[in-house]
Amino acid sequence: MIANRKICILGLGSMGMGVALSLLERQFEVIGFDINDSAMKNLESAGGVAKSSIRAAVEGCSAIIVLVVNEKQVEEVLFGKQGAVEGLGSGAVVVQSSTVPATYAKTCGERLLKQGFEMIDAPVSGGAAGARSGNLSIMASGPDSAFEQVADMMEAISGKIHRLGTEHGIGSTVKTVNQLLAGVHIAAAAEAMAFGVRAGANARELYDVISGSAGSSWMWQNRVPHILDEDYTPLSAVDIFVKDLGIVLGTGHELRFPLPLTAAAHQQFLAAASSGFGREDDSAVFKVFQKLSDIQIKEHEQANE
Q: What are the φ/ψ torsions at residue 8 (nearest 5 degrees)?
């Protein structure tokens, strides 16, 4: 079990902040760092402690959770100047939960071990809502001793912990597969929705029928309502899937494994990003089809009433 309940969160975006708030509600002491001043203020308002540097944030913590955007940021917060390894105390566990290539996760774990720290390769799924409610799905691999030390913390933020072995990189491999499916399903849902509306179906009726039919998916049921409401407030942004599907394709290249559906979905997210929708919700990939076919959800609904 964890030596003390002082946990550091590096990265206070929608996922990191959700995890921080969830831990605070479960009586953990939460220290955080982010380059975004408003995120730091929000943490303090919720009862957490914000520090002005990574090194200061990790001091005295039993564990740190890394929830930043990409491999480059993970590298910086862990190994950069004034990075976490400069301030971590002996025996602290690093829970690396950012989505990164499996090869990097493996290397990262090896480097941390050489400096005396155990790591859990622990990418997550469940979105901002899952993070906030303490109901994340954690795809985790790493030493048994590290799991034992942070067991109560991980249980506090998760609905399900998938123990995938002791080797770093396995957790990230499974997350890569998850992102392949998630990205393809979102792109397919957007394409199908646009196709149906363009062909004359009522948008909400189409959503309702498909939701109860064999063609439905979790992403269809979760993301199409954003399209129907024309609410693209980012819960998970287009740019995230540009990055994550890029990881999938990069892994396929390393393995010499063809990924044609992933490549097609990646192109759709790239098209959305290049059209100015990169920071909008990932369901904004639908807007690519809107631009091509001048589909207007609200107008179409009114015309069919």
A: -105, 135
pLDDT per residue as tens digits for the range 144-159: 999 999 999 999 999 9
Give the C-alpha separation, 188 to 124, whole Å: 23
Q: What per-residue string of b and e applies to 72-84 under the rule 16 or more CB within 10 Å gives b?
A: ebbbbbbeeeebb
Catalytic residues: 175
Question: pTM value?
Answer: 0.92
CB-based burial label for 29 (10 Å; 0-12, 13-18, 19+): middle
The answer to whether the CB of 238 falls within 8 A of the CB of 278 is yes
Range of the domain at 30: 6-167
Residue 167's pLDDT band, with cuts at 50, 70 and 90, is very high
Q: How many domains does the chain have?
A: 2
> Is residue 13 located within the same domain as residue 146?
yes
Q: Considering 103, 134, 167, which residue would you say is the last residue of a domain?
A: 167
Cα separation, 103 vs 89, in Å, equals 26
Within 10 angstroms of residue 35's Cβ, the number of other Cβ atoms is 10
Is 117 within 8 Å of 85 (Cβ atoms)? yes
